[in-house]
From TrEMBL:
One of its GO terms (biological process) is monoatomic ion transport. Residues 1-20 form the signal peptide. It is a multi-pass membrane protein. The keyword Acyltransferase does not apply. The lineage of its organism: Bacteria, Pseudomonadati, Pseudomonadota, Alphaproteobacteria, Sphingomonadales. This is TonB-dependent receptor. SUPFAM superfamilies: Porins (SSF56935). It comes from Sphingomonas tagetis. One of its GO terms (cellular component) is cell outer membrane. It holds the Pfam family Plug. Residues 42-149 form the TonB-dependent receptor plug domain.
Amino acid sequence: MKTVVSLIALAASAPAPALAQTTQAEDDTIVVTGAGIEQPRDEAGQAITVIDARTIDTRQATDVVDLLITTPGVRFSRSGTTGSVTGMSLRGAETTQTLVLIDGVKVNDPSGIGDGYDFGHLLTGNIRRIEVLRGSNSVVHGSQAIGGVVSVTTGVPEGGFGADASAEYGYRDTLNAKASVAGTAGLASGSAGLAYFRTDGISTAAPGTERDAYKNLAANARLKLDFSDTLSLDLRGYYINADLDYDSFFGAPADSADVSKIDQVAAYAGLNFAPDSSFHNRVAVTWLRNDRDYFFVRGDIADYGYSGTNLRFEYQGVLTPFEQAKFIFGYEHEKPDYDFFGFGSTSSAKADIDSLYLLAIVKPLPGLALTGGVRHDDHSQFGGAVTFGANLNYSPNDGATNLRASYGEGFKAPSLYQLYDSFSGNAALLPERSQSYDIGIDQRFDANGRAVLSLTAFQRDTTDQINFSNVTFTYGNLDRTRAKGVEATLALQPVEALTFTAAYSYIDARDRSTGTANFGKRLPRRAEDAVSVSLDYEWPFGLATGATVTVVGDSFDNAANTRRLDGYALAGVRASFPIGEVLELYGRIDNLFDAQYATAYGYGTFGRAAYGGVRVRF
C-alpha cells in the first residue's frame, strides 16, 4: 500500500505538456460508437471515452492497449513480449466479447476460437483516435458487442497538405518509425501512412533467457472523392504484417523456437448520397482477411495455420424529418469464412448472416435526448436473434450537468471454430446473450470545461456463455456470469499549461453458473480495482514533461481461483522539447521502478525500459 501511495504522489507532482489530453468538453464533443453515426456527445446516454491524437502523441505509447488501460473498465492480459497474444476485457466481459473496428471495418477474426481480436499486433503507428464504448450494444453493432466496442481511426485530412514523421530507439534494440501524409486537392482528399516496429524483445516464458523478437509493418490509406454536395466515394485500407518469436509450452514455462506470422488486410469502399438534407444514405462493402501461420522452427513452410475472412455489405439510412427526431435504419449481410491446415488435415467452414436494425433518436424537451432501437440477426447455422437497446441523456443546465442511463442487449454468435471444429465443435450452440444496465452523471464545474467529473454504475448479466467442457471436450452453452461495478474519471486543467486526468474502476465479475464448482468465483484475469493517473505540464520555455501511474489489483489466472496474480503498480515518465516549428525531441521511461509483475501466469513482462526519438511535422 505504501508503494501505491508513493507512486500516486509521484504522478501528482510530475509536470507535463499543455493540452496533452483535453478535457471532455473539448475532446468528446462528437462520438460515433453509440448510434453508428456522428452525434453530439450530449445525445449519447452510454459511457464513451475518446482518446484523441494529442493524447496519443503525448503519452508516446507503442501499444494501443497501453492507452486503453488508462481508461475506466478496461482489463488486459498479454502473453509475453510485444506482439504476443493480447486480450482486452471491457467491464469484466470475456476478451472475445469486444467488437473492434479499424476505420469502420469489423476486424474480429472469424478463424479465432471465439471470433476475438488479438490486440497484440495493433500498435499506435498512425492511429489518430480511439473511441471506447462500454456496455452491451448489439442494436447498432451486432455480434461481439457484449462488453462494448473499440473503434480505431487513422488520420483524416482536414484541408491543405501536411506530413509528419517520427523515429525512436531504445531498450532491447527497439526501433519504432512512422510517417504519414495528408492533403486535399479539388474534389479529392486523402491520407496515407506507414509504420515499422522491431525489437529484440524479452523471453515470452517468464523464467526463460532467450529473447523473443518481434517485427511489425503497418500501412494505412484513405481517399475520399466529393463529386458533389450530395454524392461522395469513400475508400479506406489498413494492413498489418507481423513476425513474432514466441515460447509455446505446456506445463512448466520454457524457451522454445516457435514462430508465428500474421498478414491482415482490412478494406472499406463506401458510397454516400443524400437526395436532400433530411435523408442521408450510405452503401458500403468491407473486407477482412486475417492469415496466421505457425512454425515449430523458423522456416519456409508453416506447420499449421488459420485463415479467416469476412465480406460484409452494409446499407445505412439516416432520416431527419424534423430537428427533434432522427431515424437510423439499415441492412447488413456478412459472410464469415475460416480455413485450417496442419497435422495432416484441413478443415473449413462458412456462414451467412443477415441483419436489420432500426434506431430512433428524439428530443422531446430541451436538454433531453431519448434513444431506442431493435435489431434482428439471422445466422445460417443457429437461426435468429433479436436485441433491444435504449438510453437517455438529460441536461437541465445547458450541458453543465449530463445525467445518463442506458439499457443494452448484446449477443455473440458462436464462432465457426466453435461450431464446426472436427474435434471440439458443436453445431447446436446458441448465441451468447447479455443484458447491460448503467446510470451515470457527467458534471462540468466551470463554463470552459476545465474541471469535469464523470461517475457511472453498471451491471451486466450474460447467459448461454460458450465455454470449453473438460468433461465432453467440446464447446457448449455452459455458463452464466454477472459483472457489476463503478467507473469514475476526473479531468482538470486549472491553468492552460497543466492537465490532470484520472480514471478508476471497480469490477466485480463472477461466475453465476449454478450447480458448478466455480459458482460465485471471480472470473480469471479480471482485477477488481484499477486506477490510472496522468499529469502533463508545459514549462514556459517549451519543455513538456509528464507522468502516468497505473495501479492494478490482485486477480486470478484460472476459473477455480487457485492461482493468484498479484497486483502491480507501473509508473512512466516522459518529456518532449520542440526545436523550432518543425522538429521535436522526445523520450520516456516505462516501468520506472522496474516492477516485477504478470498479467498471465508463466509469461514474461518488460522491466524498466528507456526510449528516445525525434518527430518532424510539415
